[in-house]
């Protein structure tokens, strides 16, 4: 069996690293998750702020996705013992890092979407 010549450094990406990366892409790519992360990056902290910034999401789904993102270590939930209880959500440092790293993908999408529309 012959192997193809390596190009652009792809030979240095092993399968285990690729699977780990894929897991993160699946979390971000899951419906509503990127919108929730973007709302958090733009300053949403209260549930109602998230809901207002994400058109079309239901309360049930927002709750579910915030819980999933919390389990992934991308969002932290803080309960302040006030009357009534105040719950705040914030991106973790890892969540903020992920949002910064997604910027080149957003630029890639913008560039290629424009090309596919004009073709």
TrEMBL record:
<keyword id="KW-0804">Transcription</keyword>
<dbReference type="InterPro" id="IPR002577">
    <property type="entry name" value="HTH_HxlR"/>
</dbReference>
<dbReference type="InterPro" id="IPR036388">
    <property type="entry name" value="WH-like_DNA-bd_sf"/>
</dbReference>
<dbReference type="InterPro" id="IPR036390">
    <property type="entry name" value="WH_DNA-bd_sf"/>
</dbReference>
<protein>
    <submittedName>
        <fullName>Winged helix-turn-helix transcriptional regulator</fullName>
    </submittedName>
</protein>
<feature type="domain" description="HTH hxlR-type">
    <location>
        <begin position="18"/>
        <end position="117"/>
    </location>
</feature>
<keyword id="KW-0805">Transcription regulation</keyword>
<dbReference type="Pfam" id="PF01638">
    <property type="entry name" value="HxlR"/>
</dbReference>
<keyword id="KW-0238">DNA-binding</keyword>
């Amino acid at each position: 069996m012959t192997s193809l010549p390596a190009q652009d450094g792809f030979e240095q990406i092993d399968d285990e690293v690729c699977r780990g990366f894929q897991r993160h892409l699946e979390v971000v790519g899951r419906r509503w998750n990127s919108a929730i992360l973007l709302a958090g990056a733009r300053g949403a902290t209260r549930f109602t702020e998230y809901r207002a910034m994400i058109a079309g999401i239901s309360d049930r789904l927002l709750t579910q996705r915030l819980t999933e993102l919390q389990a992934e270590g991308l969002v932290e939930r803080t309960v302040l013992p006030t009357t009534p209880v105040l719950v705040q959500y914030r991106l973790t440092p890892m969540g903020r890092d992920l949002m910064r790293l997604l910027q080149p993908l957003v630029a890639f999408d913008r560039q290629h979407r424009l090309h596919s529309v004009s073709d």
